[in-house]
């Protein structure tokens, strides 16, 4: 409650919080402090927000700094990075800390320290240590970031890391696609204004939930969607008239057991007012983590479809009854007048 409407600055930090408080009365504007790269680099890769590293030639001396530097070692090549003290002092609740292991964090990590883990390592941890991973994210803010080999700024599926409670699942926002549609849809739940609270079973430190074994945390939902019609769907780029052959794909993203995809039939040469009147049913074990995506495509050929529009939202945000589903472009911009008409029902 105390942190509502506040901005949290996540960064490396020089020294302790107590030292920051002592500096409040000190004139440290524009001064910098050296950080060892071992403070914030993982053993096998750098984080994507690593500040530039360079050899430190003359550590900055500050009034009130009584710490003595250890004698130089001939063979040691410790890289140093400078951080502005004014920035460092803003870091209170979200201090970046190198991730070593879940056991190391449990024994040594402070509640205000958080880790950044690359997607490759994080995916292995999800696969082989999901229970420990969830235990970790109940205690510490954990950030996942794309691997460095994604030279084209492609994205991974954020759902697999939301499933284990990761609070900051970083994506390449400049790259549209299903992954960014899930990201935007996830935060529709609060109007896109920031924090979304995780389900209780991902906040309980004694939880036994894992995505592969939901156990007693399952609250099954039987979801039925009657896709009735479409309204002024965008035309195919291959056609100057509204003669696309639209079909609708409904996907569920969530724990592995809930992943599902169903497709409607194709309505020939009518994107203006296509009618389907088809019913699709889904059984969802963990609706609190599930996302639903409606995607409209033009069937150009049996093996080639053209994206026309989509809408993604949390399953728990669905309302029952007759619903108008707006459609968004690849870039997340609302397509004026374009929508789907459906009847939603669940128990």
From TrEMBL:
GO cellular component: nucleus
Cofactor: Ca(2+)
Any GO BP: lipid catabolic process
Sequence ranges assigned to domain C2 in this UniProt record: 203-329
GO MF entries: phosphatidylinositol-4,5-bisphosphate phospholipase C activity
Top-level taxonomic group: Eukaryota
Residue ranges constituting the PI-PLC Y-box domain according to the UniProt record: 87-203
Keywords annotated in UniProt: Calcium, Hydrolase, Lipid degradation, Lipid metabolism
Recorded catalytic activity of this chain's protein: a 1,2-diacyl-sn-glycero-3-phospho-(1D-myo-inositol-4,5-bisphosphate) + H2O = 1D-myo-inositol 1,4,5-trisphosphate + a 1,2-diacyl-sn-glycerol + H(+)
Species of origin: Mohoua ochrocephala
PANTHER family: 1-PHOSPHATIDYLINOSITOL 4,5-BISPHOSPHATE PHOSPHODIESTERASE ZETA-1, PHOSPHOINOSITIDE-SPECIFIC PHOSPHOLIPASE C FAMILY PROTEIN
Biased segments, Basic residues type: 54-65
Pfam family, one: C2
Signal peptide coordinates: none
Name of this chain's protein: Phosphoinositide phospholipase C
Acidic residues bias locations: 33-49
UniProt keyword Lipid metabolism, yes or no: yes
UniProt gene name: Plcz1
Recorded coiled-coil stretches: none
InterPro entries in UniProt: C2_dom, C2_domain_sf, PI-PLC_fam, PLC-like_Pdiesterase_TIM-brl, PLipase_C_Pinositol-sp_Y
Segments for region (Disordered): 20-79
CDD domains (alphabetical): C2_PLC_like
Keyword check for Magnesium: no
Enzyme class: hydrolase
Comp. bias (Basic and acidic residues): 20-32
EC number: 3.1.4.11
């Amino acid at each position: 409650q105390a942190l509502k409407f506040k901005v949290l600055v996540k960064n490396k930090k020089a020294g302790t919080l107590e030292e920051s408080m002592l500096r409040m009365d000190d004139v440290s504007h524009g001064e910098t402090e050296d950080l060892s790269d071992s403070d914030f680099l993982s053993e096998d890769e750098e984080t994507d927000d690593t500040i530039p590293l360079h050899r430190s030639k003359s550590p900055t001396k500050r009034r009130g700094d009584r710490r003595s530097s250890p004698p130089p070692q001939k063979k040691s090549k410790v890289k140093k990075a400078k951080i502005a003290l004014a920035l460092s002092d803003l870091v209170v609740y979200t201090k970046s800390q190198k991730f070593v292991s879940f056991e190391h964090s449990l024994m040594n990590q402070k509640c205000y320290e958080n880790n950044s883990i690359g997607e490759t390592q994080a995916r292995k941890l999800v696969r082989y240590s999901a229970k420990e991973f969830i235990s970790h994210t109940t205690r510490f803010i954990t950030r996942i970031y794309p691997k460095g080999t994604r030279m084209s700024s492609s994205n991974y599926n954020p759902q697999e890391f939301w499933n284990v409670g990761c609070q900051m699942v970083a994506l390449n926002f400049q790259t549209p696609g299903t992954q960014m549609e899930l990201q935007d849809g996830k935060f529709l739940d609060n109007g896109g204004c920031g924090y979304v609270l995780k389900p209780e079973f991902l906040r309980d430190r004694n939880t036994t939930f894992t995505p592969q074994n939901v156990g007693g945390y399952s609250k099954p939902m039987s979801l039925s969607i009657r896709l009735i019609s479409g309204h002024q769907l965008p035309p195919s780029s291959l056609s100057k008239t509204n003669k696309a052959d639209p079909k609708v794909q409904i996907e569920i993203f969530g724990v592995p057991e809930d992943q599902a995809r169903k497709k409607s039939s194709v309505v020939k040469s009518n994107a203006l007012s296509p009618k389907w009147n088809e019913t699709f049913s889904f059984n969802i074990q963990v609706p609190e983590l599930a996302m639903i995506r409606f995607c409209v495509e033009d069937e150009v050929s049996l093996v080639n479809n053209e994206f026309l529009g989509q809408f993604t939202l949390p399953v728990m945000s669905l309302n029952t009854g007759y619903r108008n589903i707006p459609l968004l472009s690849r870039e997340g911009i609302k397509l004026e007048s374009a929508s789907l008409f459906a009847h939603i029902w669940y128990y």
